[in-house]
Amino acid sequence: MADQRLPIVDSDDGTWGEILNQFLYKEHYDTGLNDSANGGHKTVTLRPGNTAAGSAPLKFSSGDLMTAPEAGAIEYYSGSFYIRGGTDALSVVGNITGNNLSGTNTGDQTTVSGNAGSATVLQTARNINGISFNGSADITVPTLPISSAPTTQTGQGTIVAITYGESITIGAALYAKSDGTVCNADMTSIATGKIPCMGIALATASSGSHDVLLVGTYKDSTKWTGGTALTVGGMCYLSTSGGITQTQPSSTDNVIQVLGIAIASDTILFKPTYSYITHT
Question: What is the model's pTM?
């Protein structure tokens, strides 16, 4: 094997060509024929640099970018590198690390993965079960659709809008008619057909669609006050003409239907049983 060096001028007689060829073949391509690919680098090995200025193994000079980017090209312009993985694309395998990494991704953002270290909040807050969340703090989602104790003559829980079929007062116990409306429930007799109670009216009206509490809590300090205050822990029953009472019906043919339990002197936990018995 010839020496690993360039030929020496006025020396290396008889081996000058062999030394030069070996030097060039080390990292250059050659087929031995007239081929346009000859002379191109087949490998590039860079020696390590050192701390001295101007000793970087590879250094680019800034120049204009190609009008039509070419796949596989690396360009340097105005302080920025452009690595072309395809048509105007940047493809990097591995991690990009360093200080003050910034900029805007204006290309294809559908394949971006990993965690953004500074993404402490969402750009646009989103609601989770009605509670705004932007990522800056934990949120608590209620297990039931009850956010707080109801104010007087209001209900909290499962509420739907249903058409009123007659004159109804807020707080009235309602039953569902076959025509799709709701009317005042009545425990007087099973023969009246005004049972079972399935909701509490949350509006006073004689027609139109209004909120009805199906399950939940209903507070009425106007109705249940003074001598009519509820006994906490006591059962609540369907009464006459949409009323709610804690006295169990006891007359012949009266319907006995449990509507819930008083949890305060003016508040009922409304959870009606749809089965009932008739007093004899």
Answer: 0.50
